[in-house]
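COURSE: Structural Biology Practicum
ASSIGNMENT: Worksheet 4, Part C
STUDENT ID: 0417
INSTRUCTIONS: Below are two proteins. For each, the amino acid sequence is given first, followed by its structure token string. Answer the questions at the end about the second protein only.

PROTEIN I
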Amino acid sequence: MNEEVDYELTPAQWETLKALRTPASKLPRMSRFTIDGLIALELATMNGDAPAITAKGRKVLIRGSSLLLQDLAA
């Protein structure tokens, strides 16, 4: 089964998802509300007391990168 789902993430959610690619020790301060939203979508998870991007989150980020570039060009 191919799971091709487009997510309508807010700009804050995109920025948070991008930030989660960095090591936990270098994460900037993030909105708990935004992180909770990403966790609900299974794009992020809690690893101890720090948020972390999931494999699904990485796929959405990679797939969404082209969509973000299209938005900038428009």
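PROTEIN II
(use this one for the questions)
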Amino acid sequence: MPPRLGVDVHRRLIAPGALVASLLLAIPASAASWSPGAPGIGDPYYPAYGNGGYDVSHYDLRLTYQPATDRLEGTATLLARTTQDLSRLNLDFLLDVSEVRVNGAKASFTTSGEHELEVTPKSPLPAGTAVTVVVRYSGVPSTKTAYGFTSWHRTPDGGVGANEPEAAWWWFPSNDHPLDKATYDVSVAVPDGSQAISNGTLQSTSSRAGWTRYSWRSNKPQATYLATLAVGKFDVTTGTSESGIPIVNAYSKDLGDNYGAARASIERTGEVADWLAEYFGPFPFNALGGYVPNTNTGYALETQTRPFYSPRQFASGTNVSVVVHELAHQWYGDSVSVAGWKDIWINEGFARYAQWLWSEHEGEGTAQEIADYVYASRPAEDPFWTVRPGDPGPENQFHLAVYDRGALALQALRNEVGDEAFFAVLKGWPQRYAYGNATVGDFVRYAESVSGQPLAGLFDTWLYQASKPGVPAARAASIAPEARGASASAPVRPKSWKKIAATNSVHDH
């Protein structure tokens, strides 16, 4: 007679109470809920970027880099807290890992996908647990690619990690999405004669046996793509802005003909930051600067406190406008970061509009005149108008329309609510969401609360419609001369336009 399974189970269920209690005590209450953290944080533009199940509060990176061979060795210590009952966690990383420890115990690890490092701790981690993850690694960053590209730039005298929306994978393991911001200590040993440039303040330098170690600290939350590392031979200048912020700028010694223009532009960093503070409120960090390595890239990037500039930004002479753009990002993009990459207008529309305000400041064309020119110079059939800055899609994330049409939306807002409310919004927003994340929808609601006006229709027209706003909309927003009752004529190009257009390659990531 075959065993009667149902009867056996029933007998176990009616076992004496003491036995049942002992069995229950032997099983962890949350055992059934252990699960791996998601391999992506949930961003629809980049489903595999970032990770789920934990939140990082601090990165401690202790690195050694040899410029001659581009070899990087490091130990990364991540302080984090679990957000679920975690059986496994992922990190975004590309270099070769030799050991991982979780809370002091060796963890097993493997790789998957294009850039995933899967870490299985010796014991599962309950939700809310403080976690220390130590990763020992090495490799040659310039030999690593993901999705067919690299964000590590090899230079004649070293290397640079700087790109958007991803750069960290090539030099440190991370939860690579702006939603998980953290503070940083970055300590890098390089051969004497080379320097290591990173974010924040230089805490110390020390030399031993032919190597010099540079230790940098970022003491405010920083998105992973805003962390940067540059090793090379630089001329370094230091100073203090009028508002008291220490400045460190660095220029590669082999910039050639671009050296003078680069330095003449970036040495105005303190002046520009103080000027922007009049519009955006106090500078949100305790360090300022910029650096220009000898790369062949064309873009600039708002790496926190110390923007990265390509030499090509200065090929035609001084370019203070690009400095304005990248420093504006310190408020719009760095302190207040996107909640998802579809919110990129929060970064780029405002940084572009800062350039328009600088044009007003320099007497080379008002923001209104530039808005009129942008609107009038592009006919309705121009594909430019099909890009929706409020949600451009990953293929158009850095499209020119996100910048120019995005700034046009801000001029429409300014005309709708008036200067007093508009500039109150510009200054209040970075304080409302300081060191956090926000969406385009958050901005619309904030602008409505400050101005006391319903603005959803205006933003829908200028940010979300895949067509050129028609004459009625332009008239309502006082965009284009004829919309304000002036005679229609060929658009007049503002004096500053050539300088602003020269920064268009800033978004060619």
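ANSWER KEY EXCERPT:
Q1: The chain is about 30% helix and 25% strand.
Q2: Confidence is low (pLDDT under 50) at residues 1-30.
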